[in-house]
TrEMBL record:
GO terms for cellular component: extracellular region. Gene3D superfamilies: Pancreatic trypsin inhibitor Kunitz domain (4.10.410.10). Pfam families: Kunitz_BPTI. It is found in: Secreted. Its main location: secreted. It comes from Pseudonaja textilis (Eastern brown snake). Belongs to the venom Kunitz-type family. Transmembrane segments: none annotated. This is BPTI/Kunitz inhibitor domain-containing protein. GO terms for molecular function: serine-type endopeptidase inhibitor activity.
Length: 218
C-alpha cells in the first residue's frame, strides 16, 4: 500500500523556515481527529488544534515541544523598530497645532528578500503595532500609509492574494480586502481578532496597496 504524499507525517528533522511559522492554521482534509500544534505569530506561542490527517500546511507539529523548538524563538529578537514622524504628517492635514511628544515607534517583522514565499503575516497589519486596534484608528489614513511606504521595502503580493478572513471573534467591523480574482477591493465583515493581512480600513487604502499588483497580473 502506497501512502499519498499528502498523508505523509511532517518530519521534525526537516529544517524549519521562519516564514513557515507565519502560515495560518490549516486543519487539512480527511476525517482523523489528531491533536497537533501550530505557531500563532500574533499570540507568539504554540496553540493546539485538531488536524484531520491529510494535507494542511507545514505550520503543523505533533507536539508542543517540537513547535516551540521550531518556531518559539523566531519572534524573539527579530522585530525591528520603524519610526515615522506623526506630527509632521498631521500638520499637512490640519491647521491645528500638532501634538507634542516623541516620535511614534511602530514594530514590524523583518522583510526577507530572496524567498519564494514572503512572510504571510503582512507588514500592513495593525495588530503588529504596540497599540490596540482601536487606538490605531485615531491615526489618519495618510499616517498609516506613510508607515507602509516608509517602513517596508516592498509589499508582498502574496498578501493581496489571500482570501477574506473574518477571524475567530464575533464582533462586527466592515473592512475591505483585495479580491485577486475580480481585481477589486470589496467589503467583508471582520470579527476584530486574528484574520490575515488582506484587510484594510478604507477602500482607498486597499486600492493604493494592492491595486497595482492586480494590474500587473491582469
Amino acid at each position: 500500500v502506497h501512502t499519498r504524499p499528502s498523508e505523509l507525517p511532517l518530519s521534525p528533522s526537516l529544517p524549519v523556515r521562519s516564514d513557515q511559522c507565519q502560515l495560518p492554521r490549516n486543519q487539512g482534509s480527511c476525517s482523523k481527529e489528531l491533536q497537533h500544534f501550530y505557531y500563532d505569530p500574533e499570540e507568539k506561542k504554540c496553540i493546539s488544534f485538531v488536524y484531520h490527517g491529510c494535507e494542511g500546511n507545514s505550520n503543523n507539529f505533533p507536539t508542543r515541544e517540537l513547535c516551540e523548538k521550531a518556531c518559539g524563538k523566531i519572534s524573539k529578537g527579530t522585530e525591528e523598530a520603524c519610526c515615522i514622524e506623526v506630527p509632521a504628517v498631521v500638520r499637512l492635514e490640519s491647521q491645528q497645532t500638532p501634538p507634542r511628544g516623541p516620535l511614534e515607534t511602530f514594530s514590524r517583522p523583518p522583510f526577507r528578500l530572496g524567498t519564494h514565499l514572503p512572510l504571510i503575516q503582512p507588514l500592513l497589519h495593525w495588530q503588529l503595532f504596540p497599540l490596540s486596534p482601536k487606538a490605531i484608528q485615531k491615526y489618519s489614513f495618510s499616517v498609516r500609509l506613510t508607515f507602509l511606504l516608509s517602513c517596508t521595502p516592498s509589499f508582498p503580493t502574496e498578501v493581496c492574494k489571500l482570501p477574506a478572513d473574518p477571524g475567530r471573534c464575533l464582533a462586527y467591523s466592515e473592512q475591505y480586502y483585495y479580491n485577486w480574482n475580480t481585481k477589486k477591493c470589496e467589503t467583508f465583515v471582520y470579527g476584530m481578532c486574528n484574520g490575515n493581512g488582506n484587510r484594510f480600513a478604507t477602500k482607498l487604502e486597499c486600492q493604493m496597496v494592492c491595486g497595482e499588483f492586480g494590474k500587473e497580473q491582469a
